[in-house]
Amino acid sequence: RGLRARLAVVDGAIVGLTPPAPAGSASAASPLDVQLVDAAINASVKATVPHVGPVVLDPVQITDVTGTISRDANRRFAISVNAMVDADSGDEARVASGELKLTRNSASARFDPPLRVGAAAAGERIDVRVTTVARDSQGDIALGGLSVRARSLQASADTIALAGALRPDGLTLLVPKQVTLTGVSAERGRDSLVGARIEVELADDGTGVTVPVRVSGQDVGVRARGGALEARLKTLNAELASPTEALAALAADAPWEALKDVRATGPTLRLTADPQALPSWLDALRPALSPSAPAALSARAEAPDANPAPAGRPRALLRAIERYLGSHPVALQDGHAELIGPDGSTLITLADAGLTTEPHPSGGLAVHARGAVHRDGAERARVDVRSVIHKGVVAHASGTLSGSDIAHHISRLSDHIAIRPAARVNLRFDYERPSTDGRHRVTGAIGLHDFTFKWWRLSDAIITDLNARASFDLSVEASPSGPLDIRLKVAEVIVDEARLAGSLDLTWTPGEMPRRFDARVTMPRQDCGAVARSIPRALLPRLTDLELVGEMAFDARLALDFADPRGLELSVNGDLAACNVRSLGPGIHPKRLTRRFTHRPREPKRGTLSHIRLGPATRSFIKSEDLPELVKTMAWVTEDRRYFRHKGVRWDLIERALKLDLEKGYFVYGGSTITQQLVKNLYLDRGKTLGRKLEEAIIAWQMERVLSKDEILTLYVNLIEYGPDIYGIKQAARYYFDKPVEALDALEIAFIMGLKPYPHRGHAQWVRGELPPWWIRRVRKVLTMTVARSDLIDRDDIAILEPLQPAFRAPTASDLARAARVAEAQGRGK
After folding, report:
1. What is the mean pLDDT of the chain?
2. I need a surface site. Which of 53, 307, 644, 749 has the fewest CB within 10 A?
3. Cα(32)–Cα(291) distance, rounded to whole angstroms?
4. Alpha-carbon torsion angle 740, 742, 748, 753, nearest 10
5. Model pLDDT, residue 91
């Protein structure tokens, strides 16, 4: 009873203990030698701790100390004490009732209400509350119910364990080797952090200062800017930056800078799409989340960028990524992220996400990223990409991209491409940066599903249900100021059931027309029925019943230098002999053309001309045996000089048409054979789409197989247009010369056959009553070609016909009125 002692503690270490002198002793400083037995305690203690590291604690007053000292059967002492603890800092009472228990190997204290201790650090007041304190025989200290408040920071933990915080003597405070926190919660302003368990490992930094070096956690989460950003990690393991770097990062509102070599599993992220609510370190997302972003992105896709980004910016960004992640490796697994709209709805979800970075053995940074994008309850994209970044450039990349969102991005490459909701892309690629030859190279395979295509030159209707897959080898050589040299090889393309292969060499400057290209398409021998089924129906709207049987193959090449359209080269070699037609389309039966039939012509703006009847079943038709040979000869001489050598299509005429059209910059010449022109007049319209040309070619190919050349030629001269509402050679002869066909001379036949490309312009010359010089040259050319290709006339006959002015029938008022009505109906004017 009545024990009094003075205890001095400086910097966490006991530096002085002055016990009372034993009874009968002459000196107050003599060693303490008290024989303790079971006893009661009644005392008061005042403890002043000047500082613990950078923290200065308020004085602590312990009063009304009562308790007992006891000894068990093994003569081990235990102390149990109750006291009132007052850590009064002057602002308010901080009195707690405490219970302390001490044994030889452990100690514990409990406070009710929690003990409040005031402190100061770096000029800021700190309020600390604790409910329990315990120490075990290993010198580990455990605090329970701890909370800390410092101005804007509030933090709490269910327990904090300080491993190795005391020496075995239990009196000297040490810097712990590890700090373990459970039930952690911290708030600062609108930001908060929670953690089921967090462990901090400490070590000497080499200068005698102990610093945190590693952090691990379970179920750790942060909530930033009032909930604009919520993130959670199932597990976390991270190395920490140096104290200086960590403090600088926290001060700069960049907490990730305080971490390096981060490895985590089960990361989840919830981000609200309100640009004003985002933390500063998410500034890069603000443009993408702004309400005007879609319109801005759309406008940028349609118009060239007036202020393009400097060429070095992507490389600078990659350098920054390489530099930062090279020293801060990351390993995230099984991640999940959500983008939430201002109304609380989920806009985008990222599932099964992962990101791993590590130094690459050959230098640079190896990055592996993966994830699946979900929107509207369905998966829209999946990405799994591995890459190596070295010296600010992507040295290698490989992986897979798939989903409808990838299809959306591809559709933005061209205004002609569109996709349906179910459209998707599967892309596998492997990219290598140039080494010695300076060519970027990408190999892989791509699959397109449910694409649509709309281009007026190809088809009047939208081409739907496009499905294709291909393996490719693409290489690109780019110079800083010159064009791109692109080489593409496609080993196999499968469009529905059809199989093709091809290659493309292209010289192109982005933003400009291509300078040069050389394309080749090869179709290996295969079932021609499968090929027919693979052609999109929008390309063959009239051949809805197209059915082919047998086999076919072809090889085509098109080479063009846009600076020299005349140098265009087109070659097509096909083998269709073993392919046969079972059906084409409703009303399209070339075999029936050998019978008697009636045909009414059609015009684009007037429709079917019901007042005109043509064909073998009409009186206007002249049979082959009744047609003058000169009429037949001049028909093929003027339109198709190789008529008797082709099988319906002449690729040299198509080549010539392409040259002329490219040279003029608009459609000038169609390049059709006589067979194709007959097909157009009988079954098709005058549209100038590639789809119509394909229909024309298929029908012409079949027509040549079921009709003789003479039958086709006879139908042709009897059915084609020779002027406004003037169809057939018989009516043309009566209209222009008031003669039967058999009475026409060579000059008159040459004029009529020269009408075919420009029937309305030729009719205008008839109205004038004489031919201008340029039309005379045309007539002379027709006569000269006939001399060169037949023995029906000779040059003397041409001389007799000079000056090549035919004796026309004079137009009547009714002729002119009818021609004016036709011109007006066709939109040509008078």
Report:
1. 82
2. 307
3. 79
4. 100
5. 52
Nearest to 181 by CA among 168, 167, 199: 199
Lowest mean pLDDT among 84-88, 191-195, 235-239, 631-635: 84-88
Q: Are strands 393-403 and 417-432 parallel, antiparallel or unpaired?
A: antiparallel
| Length in residues, the chain | 830
pTM: 0.72
CA distance linking residue 31 with residue 35, whole number of Å: 13
Pairing state of beta strands 191-204 and 178-188?
Answer: antiparallel
Nearest to 455 by CA among 400, 417, 405: 417
CA distance linking residue 757 with residue 324, whole number of Å: 70
Q: Work out the percent of the chain whose per-residue pLDDT is above 90.
A: 38
User: Residue 82: beta bridge partners?
Assistant: 66, 99
Convert the pLDDT of each residue in 185-234 to its tens digit.
Answer: 988 877 888 989 999 888 876 666 677 888 899 999 888 866 778 888 88
Alpha carbon distance 519, 428 (integer Å): 24
- Phi, psi (degrees; rounded to nearest 5) at 497: -100, -10
What is the distance between the alpha carbons of residues 486 and 305, in angstroms, rounded to a whole number? 23
Rounded-to-integer distance, Cα 582 and Cα 564, Å: 43
Three-state DSSP class for 764? Answer: helix
Q: What is the 3-class SS of 175-233, one letter each residue?
A: CCCEEEEEEEEEEECCEEEEEEEEEEEEEECCCCCEEEEEEEEEEEEEEEHHHCEEEEE
Residues sharing a CB contact under 8 Å with residue 315, sequence separation 6 or more, in sequence order = 392, 393
Question: CA angle, 814 as apex, 808 and 819 as ends, to 5°?
Answer: 75
| Segments in 439-527 forming alpha helices (H) | none
Token duo for residue 436: 């010695």
What element of type H or E holds 824?
helix 813-825
